[in-house]
Amino acid sequence: MKWTYRIPNKLGTSLLLMGIMALVLVNNFVERSNSRQLEMAFESIYADRLIVESYILDLSEQLHAIQESLKSNSSDGKASWKENLSEIDRINLLYLDTKLTEDEKKHFGHFESLTWEIGQSLQAGRLVHANTGIAAALRDLQLLSEIQVIEAQSILSQTEQLFRSGSLSSRFEIGLVILIGLMVQGILFASKSLQIRTTPTAENLN
């Protein structure tokens, strides 16, 4: 620690320490930003992917229910598929409230148009056309489900990068704190040594 005895002035040392402390503060802000991004990523996975996947499952069940009601040819079949179509419209509105990718918007827009056509076909008694539309709508739902998986994997990849960045930032901050501690310790040690050397002895007083 001989460098501590050769410090030209306290101002330079103070500026150096302040610079290191500023780096620590900046690093702290970066970590907070990363934490917020991680929180948003997990919220997105839940609200825009897992919840949407449940909507897709519900829509699929409603379409399959319409198919079953058409096969049964029961007297209450019309009332049944009307209720199914109403539920599909309700779920579609919930789906639109989530964050959609451009590819997702395209497929979901096509799905909405198909469900409208299915309703029109059923009202007109064109059951074959309605069944064809249901099959196409189910294919759209399969594509939408695959998009959820791809987007969730992309978000998870981003979170892994944030975790790695946060780990490096933490190590950097710890290193700076250790450096500050060593510098302060060195300066204090040098100051005590200088005080001992400059203390007048009893012989000098005589």
Automatic annotation (TrEMBL):
The chain crosses the membrane at residues 12-30, 172-190. It comes from the Bacteria. Keywords: Membrane, Transmembrane, Transmembrane helix. This is Chemotaxis methyl-accepting receptor HlyB-like 4HB MCP domain-containing protein.
